[in-house]
Automatic annotation (TrEMBL), chain A:
Organism: Caproiciproducens faecalis
InterPro entries: ComplexI_49kDa-like, NADH_Q_OxRdtase_suD, NADH_UbQ_OxRdtase_49kDa_CS, Ni-dep_hyd_lsu, Ni-dep_hyd_lsu_Ni_BS, NiFe-Hase_large
SUPFAM superfamilies: HydB/Nqo4-like
Name of this chain's protein: Nickel-dependent hydrogenase large subunit
Keyword terms: NAD, Oxidoreductase, Translocase, Transport
Domain NADH-quinone oxidoreductase subunit D intervals: 120-282, 287-359
TrEMBL record, chain B:
GO molecular function, a single term: oxidoreductase activity
Pfam families the UniProt entry points to: Oxidored_q6
Annotated NADH:ubiquinone oxidoreductase-like 20kDa subunit domain residues: 18-128
Required cofactor(s): [4Fe-4S] cluster
Protein name: NADH-quinone oxidoreductase subunit NuoB
EC number: 1.6.5.11
Record InterPro entries: Complex_I_20kDa-like, NADH_UbQ_OxRdtase-like_20kDa
Keyword annotations of the record: 4Fe-4S, Iron, Iron-sulfur, Lyase, Metal-binding, Oxidoreductase
The keyword Cytoplasm belongs to this UniProt entry's keyword annotation: no
Family: Belongs to the complex I 20 kDa subunit family.
C-alpha cells in the first residue's frame, strides 16, 4: 500500500465561490476519504426569530441564500400562513409559482456556468451566464431586485405582474429556449466535456436513498421524487413529472438539470395560461400559534422549514434544513475513490450552496 | 475616467455572505457587466492579487482565514468591502456569530453598500480601488525616493 497523504482543500480555493474546507486523504492520486469542516459562513440567523417579529423575519428568511432567496422567503411565508390558516388569493399562488420557476432557471444556469468554469471551458461559462442575465433582467423588471426581491409577505405578494408583462416574459423565454437548445449541445455532446463528466462520481440508487440525498442529485440516481408534487403554491393545477436519470454520474446530473430548465419554462408557460385575475394579498391579523413543517422543492432539492409559534409576535423556533446539507453525505461518498483532479467537478455536481447549509 | 496604468488582479473571498453579493461579484466578471474591460482579472491566488473583494461579515470561523489572505497579498493592496454585511454586518448584525464588518479584522479602503450590492456599484468600487492602488504605488515610490535622498 502506498503512503497516505492529506491535502487541504479550501476554504479559499479558485474553484469555490463559497468557503468549505475538505481534508482529502490521498493514496497517490486517489482520494480515499474526504473529511469536511464547515462553519465559515455560519451566522446564526435561526436565532434571530427571537429578535425580529414574524413579519419582519421574512427579510431574514430571504437572505438565508441569495440564489434561492425567493423560495426561502416563500417557504417561510407558507409555513406561517399554514399556522395562521390564511388562504392566499389564487393569483398570488400563481405568481409564487412563476417566480419560483424563474429562480430555478437562473440557479441552474448559474450552476451550468460554474461547472463549465470548473472544467476550464471559459467561453461556455461566459455564454451561460450571459443567458442567465436575461432571467435577472426579468426579475428586476417584475420585482425591482436582481437577487434579493422581498416580494413575499405573509398573506400574499407585495407586487403584482400585469398580464402584458407576463406575455412579454413568455416571449423572452421562447427566445431563451431556442438559444439554450443550441448551448446545451456543447454540454451534452462535446467530447471534451463528456470526457470530464461521464463515468465520474457514481452514486447508486440505493446509496442515494440510504444517504438521504435530495433534489437533482437524488433524481439523477433514479429516484423519482419531487417535493413540488406535494402541492404548494399553484403546483397542484399544473402538469409536470419529476425528471430522472438512471445513470447516477456527473453527466446524468448535468443532463437532469438541463432538462429541468426546459421543464421550468414549460411550467411558467402553463401558469401564465391559467393565472386568474384578482388580488395578490389578503390582510393578516393576529399572531401565529402552533407549529408547522413546510417542504419546498428548491433548485438544489428539498428544503424543510420548521416553525413553532407561541401566540406572540416573536416565534419560538425556526429551523431550516437545506438541500445541500442533506446532500453532503452523498457528496463525500462520491468523492471516495475518485482522482484528485476530479474533486472540483464532483463537489460542483451536487450544486453546493454553503450559505444555506450553514445559515 | 482616469487613466489606468496597470491591470490589477482581483481576489474574491466570501466571508459569511448570503451568496447574493457573491453572485453579483461573479456577474461583474461575466458578459453584460464585464470588469475585464478595465484590465481586471479574477484570480484564486492571494499572492497574485492586488484587490481583495470581500462579501459578507466576519464570524469566528473565518476571522483567521481573512487575516491570512490579507497577509499573503503583496504590498500595495486595496480591500473592497462589498455589500452592507461586509460594511458593518447588515441584517445579520445582531446574530450571535457575527463579529461585524470586515474592518473589524483588516483595514478596508472602499465600502460598497447595498443588499445585494448591484453590479454597477461593485464596478464603481473596483474602479475606485484601481485609482487608489495607483495612488498607493505613487506614494510608495515618492517615499522611497525621499529616503534615498536622505541617505
Amino acid at each position: 500500500m502506498s503512503k497516505r497523504s492529506i491535502v487541504p482543500f479550501g476554504p479559499q480555493h479558485p474553484v469555490l465561490p463559497e468557503p468549505i474546507h475538505l481534508d482529502l486523504v490521498l493514496e497517490d492520486e486517489k482520494v480515499v476519504e474526504a473529511i469536511p469542516s464547515i462553519g465559515f459562513v455560519h451566522r446564526g440567523l435561526e436565532k434571530l426569530v427571537e429578535k425580529k417579529d414574524f413579519n419582519e423575519y421574512v427579510y431574514v428568511a430571504e437572505r438565508i441564500c441569495g440564489i434561492c432567496s425567493f423560495m426561502h422567503g416563500m417557504g417561510y411565508c407558507e409555513a406561517v400562513e399554514n399556522i395562521m390558516e390564511v388562504e392566499i388569493p389564487p393569483r398570488a399562488k400563481y405568481l409564487r409559482t412563476i417566480w419560483c420557476e424563474m429562480s430555478r432557471i437562473h440557479s441552474h444556469l448559474l450552476w451550468l456556468g460554474l461547472l463549465a468554469d470548473a472544467f476550464g471551458f471559459e467561453s461556455l461559462f461566459m455564454e451561460t451566464w450571459r443567458m442567465r442575465e436575461k432571467v435577472l433582467d426579468m426579475f428586476e423588471y417584475s420585482t425591482g431586485g436582481r437577487v434579493i426581491f422581498s416580494v413575499n409577505k405573509i398573506g400574499g405578494q407585495r407586487k403584482d405582474m400585469d398580464n402584458d408583462m407576463i406575455r412579454e416574459f413568455l416571449g423572452v423565454f421562447a427566445d431563451m429556449e431556442r438559444s439554450l437548445k443550441e448551448l446545451v449541445k456543447t454540454f451534452l455532446n462535446n467530447s471534451a466535456v463528456n470526457s470530464r463528466l461521464r463515468d465520474v462520481g457514481f452514486l447508486t440508487k440505493q446509496q442515494a436513498f440510504d444517504l438521504g440525498t435530495v433534489g437533482p442529485f437524488m433524481r439523477s440516481s433514479g429516484i423519482s421524487r419531487d417535493t413540488r408534487k406535494l402541492g404548494y403554491a399553484a403546483y397542484p393545477n399544473l402538469e409536470f413529472e419529476p425528471i430522472t436519470s438512471e445513470v447516477g454520474d456527473c453527466y446524468a446530473r448535468t443532463d437532469v438539470r438541463i432538462r429541468e430548465i426546459f421543464q421550468s419554462i414549460d411550467i411558467i408557460r402553463q401558469a401564465a395560461a391559467k393565472i386568474p385575475n384578482g388580488e395578490v394579498a389578503v390582510p393578516v391579523k393576529g399572531f401565529p400559534e402552533g407549529e408547522y413543517f413546510m417542504r419546498v422543492e428548491q433548485p438544489r432539492g428539498e428544503a424543510i422549514y420548521y416553525i413553532k409559534a407561541n401566540g406572540t409576535k416573536f416565534l419560538d423556533r425556526m429551523r431550516v434544513r437545506t438541500p445541500t446539507f442533506a446532500n453532503l453525505p452523498g457528496m463525500l461518498e462520491t468523492l471516495k475513490g475518485c482522482q484528485l483532479a476530479d474533486v472540483p467537478i464532483l463537489i460542483l455536481t451536487i450544486d453546493p450552496c454553503i450559505s444555506c447549509t450553514e445559515r | 475616467m482616469m487613466k489606468i496604468s496597470k491591470s490589477p488582479w482581483l481576489l474574491h473571498y466570501d466571508g459569511s455572505s448570503c451568496n447574493g453579493c457573491d453572485i453579483e461579484v461573479l456577474a461583474c466578471l461575466t458578459p453584460v457587466y464585464d470588469v475585464e474591460r478595465f484590465g481586471v482579472v479574477n484570480t484564486g491566488n492571494p499572492k497574485h492579487a492586488d484587490i481583495l473583494l470581500i462579501t459578507g461579515g466576519i464570524n469566528r470561523q473565518n476571522e483567521a482565514v481573512v487575516k491570512q489572505i490579507y497577509s499573503q497579498m503583496p504590498e500595495n493592496k486595496v480591500v473592497v468591502a462589498v455589500g452592507i454585511c461586509a460594511c458593518d454586518g447588515g441584517i445579520f448584525k445582531e446574530c450571535y456569530n457575527i463579529l461585524g464588518g470586515v474592518d473589524k479584522v483588516i483595514p478596508v479602503d472602499i465600502y460598497v453598500p447595498g443588499c445585494a450590492a448591484r453590479p454597477e456599484a461593485i464596478i464603481d468600487g473596483v474602479v475606485k480601488a484601481i485609482a487608489l492602488l495607483d495612488r498607493k504605488r505613487e506614494l510608495k515610490k515618492r517615499n522611497a525616493a525621499a529616503l534615498h535622498k536622505e541617505a
